[in-house]
């Protein structure tokens, strides 16, 4: 059974930084793409960032336009962790952030992710 547990959320002032972490268990972590989504109050869940598994050609990442150049996704296959480094945070980044795990090593083109964590709250004050 795949389990994803997020941590690192909290309250931060605008312009500040946070690092979210996701601990994965239940299958070969290094084989699968990982991602982050978020859902703000009254809004639909939206894609934030994703990272493929590490292959001979390297690793690929993808970001939502709203977080490019501010957020960085990385993975630590030795520890079964994926991180989301969030810099220059804005009040509009306030949301529950969810960790996701994909069905293959590639970032899904259709943005379908079969496994989800419970989420961690990020609140950015102005």
Explain what this protein looks like in three dimensions.
By secondary structure, the protein is an all-beta fold. The protein is built from no helices and 11 strands. The strands form 2 sheets. Strands 2, 4, 5, 6, 9, 10 and 11 form a 7-stranded mixed sheet that branches. A 4-stranded antiparallel sheet has the order 1-3-8-7, with no helix packed on it. The radius of gyration is 14 Å and the shape is globular.
Q: From the alpha-carbon coordinates, what is the Rg to the nearest angstrom? A: 14 Å
Number of helices: 0
Assess the beta-strand content as a share of residues: over 45%
Unreliable stretches (pLDDT < 50, length at least 5) are none
Count of β-strands: 11
Order of helices and strands: EEEEEEEEEEE
Q: Give the biggest sheet.
A: 7 strands, mixed
- Shape assignment: globular
Helix content: under 10%
Distance between the termini: 40 Å
Secondary structural class = mainly beta
Mean pLDDT: 95
Oligomer: single chain
Keywords:
126 residues; mainly beta; seven-stranded mixed sheet
Short note summarizing the structure:
This protein is mostly beta strands and 126 residues long. Helices cover 0% and strands 47% of the residues.
Topology record:
Layout: E1 3-7, E2 10-13, E3 18-25, E4 34-39, E5 46-51, E6 61-63, E7 71-76, E8 81-86, E9 95-101, E10 115-116, E11 120-125
Parallel strand pairs: 2-11
Antiparallel strand pairs: 1-3, 3-8, 4-5, 4-9, 5-6, 7-8, 9-10, 9-11
